[in-house]
Amino acid sequence: MSTTPIGQPITRIDGKFKVTGRAPYTLEHPIDNVAYGVAVASTIGKGKIKNIQTAEAGKMPGVLAILHHGNAQKLYRPAGSLEESSRPGESRPPFEDENIYYYGQFVALVVAETFEQAQDAAANVRVEYDAQRPAVRLADGEKQAKPNANYSRGDFNSAFEQAQVKLDETYITPIEVHNPMEMHGTIAVWDEDKDKFTLYESSQGVVNHHNVASQVLGMPPESIQIISPFIGSGFGCKLFPWPHSWMAAMAARHVKRPVKVAVPRQLMFTTVGHRPTIQQRIRIGATQDGKLLAFANDVLQSSSQVDEYLEDCVDPTAMLYSCPNVAAQQHQVSLNTGTPTPMRGPGRVPALFGIESALDELAVKLNLDPLEVRIRNYAETDEGSGHPWSSKHLREAYQTGAERFGWSKRNPKVSSMTKNDEILGWGMATCTWPAHQRAAEVRVRLLADGTARASCATQDIGTGTYTVFAEIVSDKTGLPVDKINVVLGDSSLPPGPTSGGSSATATVIPAIIKATGNAVEAVLKAAAKTPNSPFEKTDPKTLKMTGGRVHEQNKSPESGLPFQQILTAAKLVGLDGHAKTDGTPEQKNYSTHSFGAHFCEVSFDPEIVRLRVTRWISVIDGGRMINQKTARNQIIGSVTMGIGMGMLEEAVYDPRTGHPINNNFADYLVAVNADVPNIECIFLDYPDTVMNEYGARGIGEIGLTGCASALTSATYHATGVRVRDLPIRIEKLLDRT
Fold it and tell me: What is the pTM of this model?
């Protein structure tokens, strides 16, 4: 009987710290003599600062300093794409000059003894602007759009013109804001004697944050330490560092004491990224029996005046379905908003809203089942790259989901299915996400007290990375999970990956395996060298460790000794194993993706125009699940976000000032318990051994891709209203005829 924790529903090892309040989040670290920084943000979306009056605020009780572009120390722009792991959220450091590029841009920082004093003084800083009208909509800058991605194969134009059936529609996803429960913040501790900064951060990329801090602050890397042991989620907005980090550091050096800067909820809508608005014109040419002949996606997306940002919708257009003639191009419009940043499922989430919605519309036009259209255009290889799939079981996902959902009972006629005086709508969509594996370093130490310690400068953003480390070490040593101490979230540890792109787990697994193996090998060598050991002068290659016990390979574990007795006999406190790994070379010859299918039911009450999601089933082909419990949590969370995306979320900007007018949780709506039905998640659990020994791929993003299109397709089936411009709003359903 297998005792491995791999694939089991293991409870998170960090869970007890969170539920008992012992997990220190960024702004909860107990730092002595801390001062408080409160930012002053611009109230215009475009223009220049004419004058900053700080005299009155500077005389208020407790005020230590007021920093702005006229008196702040010089900061530098980070290397960005010029160096690996040097990507900022916004390349322009705070207070660089008097120019204003978006509403809510930091223009000053008040530092005081208490938060209340800093807040009061910040309200008394007077800023005079030379304001201009900002551009906050795609139409405002469409004529100056810049190309930033393209792809083609075959001859789309000829194939489209000759196609028997044509579809030409435009789909729009609005700006969405991440809004994790834990807002952004930094505590900066400046040690003047050592010329060193310690920055307590809420970061999805500790190593990247460390490198950017070194560059922005103009300090050697060894003089900076980033600490981020627990993160209250991020969904992408904490992947890269934002200006508040550098304001905290700047202030700490200025007042020569620790400074805490928190980003309030209102500024979470302006200064720490968002998903850009994306417009997709999709044209499809097909045969009468539903075979794709031509597929084009013309994409227009927003970015900022400060940075270029690509939300890649081209790649999924190229690879998801079989089609001989494909053309995709993407353009960027620079707007007076903050710099966009990856939000869960970047590129593929908006792309699949357009692609999957168009497939559903094509099915209606052809009078075919939407699932059948997808099966008829199943891609046996990645036609975008020309590579075979490393592992793909999408057909089984379709079949499993359809059977569990009861899809065969679907009546395709609009508004034809009812239950309890409400109209039912059924929709489905494909989901997909690429699988990546990058470089990582891990250290595993086996200790004389019978425990193990695994360390890496990656981080756990709430997805269960602590537990994955413990499970792998447990599987390779036989130690119980609760005997393994995992240390993450500190840049002084061996470098680890950013928690983004659903790549962290697949990236660290090979390094954990190798480091654990090296630690075990060191113990076996000690067993053979230690005087009076039962294995003295034994060839270490004939020994192994099972269940935490060292024994000869041809004998049972019970015949050996617990490894800690070996260490004690050798008078050692512990032995280390260290490993550095890169992505496997085999991946270059394959297309590595995860796939799946969503099936959604909505109910519609036409008398009060109420639309609700009532059933949801997701079937995921995501490789082998390392932890069934945390994996299921990721999919349920993703679908919940998908319901919010489809029905609720949109950041709305005042075109006169660029002010996001719904910059709070009262007006920016997200899905809550009442909006979310029971979500059933099924994992096919086929290992992808091209990826790593366990066959694991990442699943943090895939559950969100395709959600919005499944929802709008179900809405059309129930109401006859085709929503191509998210979110679904009551006023759109009022147009139902």
Answer: 0.96
